[in-house]
Design goal:
By secondary structure, the chain is mainly alpha-helical. It has four helices and no strands.
Length: 76
């Protein structure tokens, strides 16, 4: 039995709606703040900076050239 135009439109609409829902879910996930530890949040609030910046600083601290004293060694 061939698919009618009305059935084809309904199927197309269902596919479109599913794609929209998937895109909306992905957009919502990007808007959520990443998990931040309590100490990161406290430092961020006290200094008026985003908690994400504190988290990133903590991640790269192990790679810091602590034996170097020139500014240029610290800039990547």
């Amino acid at each position: 039995m061939p698919v009618t135009l009305k059935e084809a439109d309904a199927q197309g609409a269902d596919r479109w709606l599913k794609r929209c829902r998937t895109a909306l879910k992905a957009a919502e996930e990007q808007l959520e703040d990443p998990p931040v530890l309590d100490w990161q949040r406290q430092i961020a609030v006290r200094n008026g900076i985003p908690p994400r910046l504190i988290e990133r600083l903590g991640q790269v601290l192990d790679q810091a050239p602590i034996d170097k004293t020139a500014t240029e060694d610290w800039i990547r």
